[in-house]
Design brief:
Elements (H helix, E strand, L loop, with lengths): L1 E2 L2 E2 L2 E2 L2 E4 L8 E2 L2 E2 L2 E4 L2 E4 L4 E10 L4 E3 L3 E12 L5 E5 L7 E3 L2 E3 L1 E4 L5 E3 L2 E5 L4 E3 L5 E3 L2 E5 L4 E3 L5 E3 L2 E5 L4 E3 L5 E3 L2 E3 L6 E3 L5 E3 L2 E3 L6 E3 L5 E3 L2 E3 L6 E3 L5 E3 L2 E3 L6 E3 L5 E3 L2 E3 L6 E3 L5 E3 L2 E3 L6 E3 L5 E3 L2 E3 L6 E3 L5 E8 L6 E3 L5 E8 L6 E3 L5 E8 L6 E3 L5 E7 L8 E3 L5 E5 L10 E3 L5 E8 L6 E3 L5 E8 L6 E3 L5 E3 L2 E3 L6 E3 L5 E3 L2 E3 L6 E3 L5 E3 L11 E3 L5 E3 L2 E3 L6 E3 L5 E3 L2 E3 L6 E3 L5 E3 L2 E3 L4 E5 L5 E3 L2 E3 L3 E5 L5 E3 ...
Length: about 775
């Protein structure tokens, strides 16, 4: 029975055939031009439709050489020679449709504009459907158990849509033509890749690919898009892309045995992808200049993202709970921004390439470092790196630049560890509560500016390199030192170091410079410097439990500083040729200034209310000049030989104004008044006492027990005991003035003393006695 229908002005017939009549039409040479159905002869016209009625069709070999539609009514099952195609659409057959058939074998389509839909392909020894023509549409087919590919397409502009393909011996879908559209297919258990696209400008969307023996989806053509697909449980990567300018967006790649997404091509865009639970990396990038945005990589057995390419950008990434690194970058010029990287077993970010750029990233609770960078010229901005198993930031590359670390807290080692030359760190809001140092710098020429480092288990900042600059630092309440610097030529400026368990600033370097800094309430010294030629100025060190400032280096200089209320000395110096100049030392529990070095200079300082001495010097050849010392126990106390004590004021001290024990002391042009002991007391074996003024002291104004003292041009008045007293055997006392003293004006007791040209008047006992 045949049915003929007319559509518009074009003649198109619809014929019904069964498993016996179809072979009169469809021969091994093609479609018959004329054929007979039910005793009626018909002429085939392009565009005719043949409906295959329900039944089993055996030994089928259909060759379509003209435009035709073959559709099924009911269950139509075709069997043929396993080594050949059951249906073959030749290139001359354009606009052909094959629909609704169950084919036990394969089909090939060479004609353009073919539509192959709603068919079932079973047990093919070849490709299930082979497409070599252009503009074909392969849709809604079910393809099972093929020896080669489920769908193999070499034509351009082919659409492979909504097919279900299982157990293909090779690829589920193989497409090598350009402009392919592969959409909404469900592919499982392929012997190679689930989908393999090699043509340019392909578009792959909404595919679900699982359990492939190769990759889930592979793309090697340029300008390919892989969109909103799921690739799970594949033996290699979920998505593998080699072409340039690929776009991989909104995909899910889980539980794959290699990588979730593997991109080798350049200029790839990966956006809104989820690559989790994979046996290697979540996302692997080998190409250059690619961009990954708004994606999540978590719980992968290797790293969340691994990139060996250069110039790649990673924006708004969540990479967490991976067994290695959150990010593993080995190429140059890569960047990560606006990303959260935490709970990875190794590092949050691991980068070895040069010029890495990190902006606005959170690295927390990683097993090793929050950020590890070994390449040169790395840049980091707005970084938060806390609670990591080693360091918050660990940089080994040279020329690092960091601006604004929001937090580098509670890391088990250091908050920030700088191990490269010329590092520059600007604005660290907090590097606190770390297991070692807040910031640890080991190489030369580092600059750390505007940092807060508190409550660390070792030092707030530890620096071992030369030429380091530490500016505007707050280093407080650390368990060791606020700042510990051991490299030469360090510069420490504008720092505040309070409440540290050891020293506020501990500098063990040569030619260090410390200025405009404060160090208060530390449990040892405020500032402790043991390097030669150190310079400390415009600084304050108060309320420390040992010394305010303690310098042991030779040729050290301390000036314009203050050291008050310390439990030992305000300023202590033990270095050769040290200079202490124009500083204030008040209410220290020991001495205001304590110097044990030789050839030191103590000049123009103010020392008041100190429990022991205003200035105590034990060194040889010291110069103590133009100091003001008052309300101390001793104003000046000098034990070193050849000391020069010149032009000082010592008044209202609890014992003596100036006390000198050293040999050959030179005590010159000093003023000592209202002291409760002697004004000037010299005990060395020889002394030169010249042009001093001693008045209103509670005991003798000037007293010398040196054997060969020279006492000239001094004035002693209104003292409560003698004006001038000398017991030296060879003392020389001349041209002195002694007025209104309550004892003797001048009392010279030595046997061979020489007394001449002195003036004495108004003294209570006698003016002169010798």
């Amino acid at each position: 029975m045949a049915v003929l229908s007319m559509i518009s002005t074009v003649s198109a017939a619809n014929y019904a055939v069964n498993n016996t009549t179809y072979s009169d039409i469809f021969t091994s040479d093609g479609i018959s031009t004329t054929f007979t159905l039910d005793g009626v002869e018909y002429t085939f016209e392009d565009g005719d439709t043949f409906t295959f009625m329900e039944g089993l069709y055996e030994n089928v070999k259909i060759i379509l050489d003209r435009s035709v539609s073959i559709i099924a009514e009911g269950s139509v099952e075709l069997f043929g020679d396993a080594g050949n195609d059951i249906i073959q659409v030749l290139s001359s057959s354009v606009n052909t449709t094959v629909s609704g058939l169950s084919i036990n074998g394969s089909m090939s389509v060479d004609g353009n504009n073919a539509t192959i839909n709603n068919n079932t392909i079973l047990s093919s020894t070849r490709d299930g459907i082979l497409i070599t023509g252009d503009n074909a549409t392969i849709s809604n087919n079910t393809i099972n158990d093929t020896n080669l590919c489920g769908v193999n397409s070499t034509g351009d502009n082919v659409h492979v849509i909504n097919n279900k393909i299982t157990y293909a011996g090779m690829e589920g879908i193989n497409s090598s033509g350009d402009f392919a559209n592969i959409k909404n297919n469900n592919i499982s258990s392929s012997g190679s890749n689930g989908i393999n696209s090699t043509g340019n400008n392909a578009y792959l969307e909404l595919n679900n690919v699982t359990y492939s023996d190769g990759h889930g989806i592979t793309s090697s053509g340029n300008n390919t898009t892989v969109y909103n697909s799921r690739t799970h449980y594949n033996e290699k990567s979920g998505i593998y892309s080699e072409g340039y300018n690929s776009n991989i967006t909104l995909n899910y790649a889980y539980f794959n045995y290699d990588h979730g997404i593997y991109s080798k091509g350049h200029n790839t865009t990966i956006n809104q992808c989820y690559a989790n639970y994979n046996y290697k990396n979540g996302i692997l990038i080998d190409g250059n200049n690619s961009t990954v945005t708004n994606s999540t990589t978590e719980l992968n057995d290797y790293s969340g993202i691994n990139s060996s390419g250069s110039g790649n950008r990673f924006v708004s990434i969540k990479s967490r709970y991976n067994q290695k690194n959150g990010f593993h970058l080995t190429g140059a010029d890569n960047s990560i921004s606006s990303s959260s990287i935490y709970n990875n077993t190794w590092n949050g970010v691991y980068s070895t390439g040069n010029n890495v750029f990190l902006y606005n990233i959170l690295c927390a609770s990683n097993g090793y470092n929050g950020i590890y960078s070994s390449g040169s010229k790395a840049q980091m901005y707005y970084v938060n790196s806390t609670l990591n198993g080693q360091n918050g930031i660990y940089s080994k590359g040279n020329d690092l630049y960091i601006f604004l670390v929001l937090s580098a807290n509670q890391n088990k080692l250091n908050g920030i560890y700088l191990d490269g030359l010329n590092a520059y760190v600007n604005y660290v809001s907090s590097a606190n509560n770390n297991g070692q140092n807040g910031i640890y710098s080991t190489k030369n020429n580092a600059t750390i500016y505007n940092a807060v480092t508190s409550s660390n288990s070792q030092n707030g900042i530890r620096s071992t390199g030369s030429g380091v600059k530490l500016f505007s630092i707050g280093a407080n309440s650390n368990k060791n030192n606020g700042i510990r610097s051991s490299g030469n030529n360090a510069q420490i400026n504008g720092v505040k170091t309070d409440y540290n368990s050891w020293n506020g600033i501990y500098s063990i370097v040569s030619t260090a410079k410390i200025w405009d800094s404060s160090a208060n309430y530390n449990k040892q010294n405020g500032i402790y410097s043991i390097g030669s030629t150190a310079k400390i100025w415009d600084s304050s060190a108060n309320y420390n439990k040992q010394n305010g400032i303690y310098s042991t280096g030779s040729s050290a200089q301390i000036w314009d500083s203050s050291a008050n209320y310390n439990k030992q000395n305000g300023i202590r110096s033990s270095g050769y040729k040290a200079i202490i100049y124009r500083s204030n030392v008040t209410k220290n529990s020991g001495n205001g200034i304590y110097s044990t070095g030789s050839t030191v200079k103590i000049i123009s300082n103010k020392a008041k209310y100190n429990v022991n001495c205003g200035a105590l010097s034990n060194g040889y050849n010291a110069l103590i000049e133009s100091n003001q010392n008052y309300y101390n126990k001793y104003g000046i106390y000098s034990t070193g030989s050849k000391a020069i004590i010149y032009n000082n004021k010592a008044y209202y001290n609890k014992l003596h104004g100036i006390y000198s024990k050293g040999v050959s002391a030179n005590i010159n042009k000093n003023t000592a008044y209202a002291n409760k002991g002697y004004g000037i007391y010299s005990r060395g074996s020889s002394a030169y006492i010249y042009k001093n003024s001693a008045k209103n002291n509670y005991k003798t104004g000037i007293i010398s027990i040196a054997k060969s003292a020279s006492i000239y041009y001094n004035t002693a008045s209104n003292n409560k005991s003698n004006g001038i007293y000398s017991s030296g055997s060879y003392a020389k006392i001349a041209k002195n003035t002694a007025l209104k003293n309550r004892g003797y004006g001048i009392y010279a007791k030595g046997k061979k003393r020489q007394v001449a040209y002195n003036k004495a008047s108004g003294n209570k006992k006698r003016n002169l006695r010798y």
